[in-house]
Design brief:
Layout: E1 3-9, H1 13-24, E2 29-33, E3 44-47, E4 54-57, E5 63-64, H2 68-76, E6 83-85, E7 91-95, E8 98-101, H3 108-114, H4 128-136, H5 138-153, E9 178-181, H6 186-193, E10 198-202, E11 206-212, E12 215-220, E13 225-233, H7 237-244, H8 249-255, E14 259-271, E15 282-285, E16 290-295, E17 304-311, H9 318-329, E18 336-348, H10 353-364, E19 369-371, H11 381-397
Parallel strand pairs: 1-2, 1-13, 2-10, 7-15, 13-19
Antiparallel strand pairs: 3-4, 5-9, 6-9, 7-8, 11-12, 12-13, 14-17, 14-18, 15-16, 16-17
Helix pairs in contact: 1-6, 1-11, 3-4, 4-5, 7-8, 8-10
Bound molecules: flavin-adenine dinucleotide.
Length: 399
């Protein structure tokens, strides 16, 4: 059986940023990924074109200069030259099948009365709904902000912890404020997966993690096994719970309480002159079967425009989705040049989640088992990378 210093399960940004740390320190590192490609929620659909490859993000799309750990990883991989500015185009609201500006939807009197409460209201312990109703007013929250937050997390965010939605982080002023990468964000994952010292195998689903003497044994669905001195789980929480139920039932029980929300994402590519919409960053849906539309207008392309619709699960079948997409864009079905689809999932965290994290962390303390993912510090890319860097430091401290 092959034996590694570290085996990482899951090749999203959480797993790969952890593997990156290990490979840089000279540890023999193996990453095992269930899907046919690395990236997880980083999925950049590409079309070769003479005017420069066109890519469309079906998952994560935006990074900020406050993502310091992610930027360190990008720098470490020699990818800084590929940072690409996102143009300033507005987000708009879609209500009653009409595109409207965000300011036109707000009640300014209510906003004026409520906003000062921001100085005396703490986010900790409050849900998104409890916190933001106080600081923007109930009417503004229900009419605009709730939909905006739902569109950020592709789920109903009413009960999500307010302090895990947006975080204040220190910015890197030498880096573009809001950026993507040439070729799309998935290129970060592909670059890490190919770095020296790191082996990545895709198309392998892991079924179980068990102990074997001082080692971990990672068992695949088709019965293969890998031995590792340390193992890292970087899958969604319910998957991690399932993988650990034999080895660490207490951890598994805690993780199984973290729910996931599915998102049915569909990206469409159209010739630039076809859609009737003015350039925009995206649409916040208020009364549709989708939460949001994310546009590629932030990185204009000479020939194409692209739009990803993040649908609520189980609401519409594929044909109905494409019909609605054509309606929103003002194009015919035949004018859609390409369609790409992706099943995404985001954890539905709840107030008090930090207690689960504390409990899980104390249960794995001192063990060679690392846990990372977007259900620890928060769902933003930087939260994932920060957790992975911290987990690697914990491993190093043990040796
Ligand atoms: C639609 C969408 C848009 C987003 N936009 C942004 C954004 O613009 N900016 C931002 O900061 N954040 C954004 N996020 C959040 C952020 O992208 C995610 O939280 C983050 O990418 C999750 O990374 P991860 O590695 O933890 O999980 P994932 O990306 O889900 O990776 C987990 C990996 O584990 C693999 N896996 C699962 N089970 C197994 C198994 N049994 N064996 C082997 N492998 C397995 C999966 O196939 C997957 O590749 C967005 C998320 C979504 C879904």
């Amino acid at each position: 059986m092959e034996r590694y210093d570290l085996v990482v399960i899951g090749a999203g940004i959480s797993g790969l940023s952890l593997a990156y740390c290990a490979a840089r320190k000279g540890m023999s590192t193996l990453v095992l990924e269930k899907n046919g490609a690395v990236g997880g929620a980083f999925h950049s659909h590409r079309i070769p074109d003479d005017g420069g490859d066109f890519w469309l993000e079906l998952g994560a799309h935006t990074c900020y200069n406050s993502y310091r750990n992610l930027i360190a990883l990008i720098e470490g991989c020699g990818m800084t030259g590929r940072l690409t500015r996102r143009e300033k185009v507005p987000f708009r609201v879609l209500r009653n099948a009409t595109v409207q500006s965000i300011p036109s939807q707000l009640n300014y009197l209510e906003l004026l009365v409520s906003v000062p409460k921001i100085f005396v209201t703490k986010k900790a312990g409050l849900s998104v709904s409890d916190y933001y109703k106080r600081i923007v007013g109930k009417q503004n929250f229900e009419r605009v902000f709730a939909h905006a937050f739902n569109s950020v997390l592709s789920q109903n965010t009413t009960d999500f912890p307010a302090d895990m939605l947006f975080k204040k982080r220190q910015r890197r002023k030498d880096i573009l404020k809001s950026f993507t990468l040439e070729g799309g964000l998935q290129s970060i994952c592909a670059t890490v997966a190919g770095m020296p010292g790191l082996q990545t195998v895709t198309g392998v689903a892991i079924e179980q993690v068990q102990a074997s003497g001082n080692d971990f044994q990672i068992v695949t669905e088709d019965g293969n096994a890998y031995a590792a001195r340390a193992a890292a789980l970087a899958t969604p929480a319910p998957v991690a719970a399932d993988l650990l139920k034999g080895l660490l039932p207490d951890v598994a029980a805690r993780l199984s309480g973290i729910e996931l929300r599915a998102v049915e994402s569909i990206g469409v590519v159209v010739e630039k002159e076809k859609p009737s919409l003015d350039p925009l960053a995206g649409l916040i849906a208020t009364d549709e079967a989708f939460f949001s539309v994310v546009s590629r207008d932030t990185v204009p392309h000479p020939r194409y425009r692209g739009f990803t619709f993040h649908f609520q699960p189980g609401r519409l079948d594929r044909e109905a989705k494409l019909a609605r997409i054509a309606g929103v864009l003002g194009v015919t079905h035949g004018e859609i040049a390409q369609v790409a689809e992706k099943e995404n999932a985001i954890p539905a965290l709840r107030v008090g989640h930090e207690e689960t994290v504390r409990a899980v962390d104390s249960m794995i303390a001192g063990k060679g088992l690392l846990l990372t993912g977007n259900y620890f510090a928060g769902v933003a890319i930087e939260d994932c990378v920060s957790r992975s860097f911290a987990e690697f430091q914990r491993l190093e401290a043990q040796h």
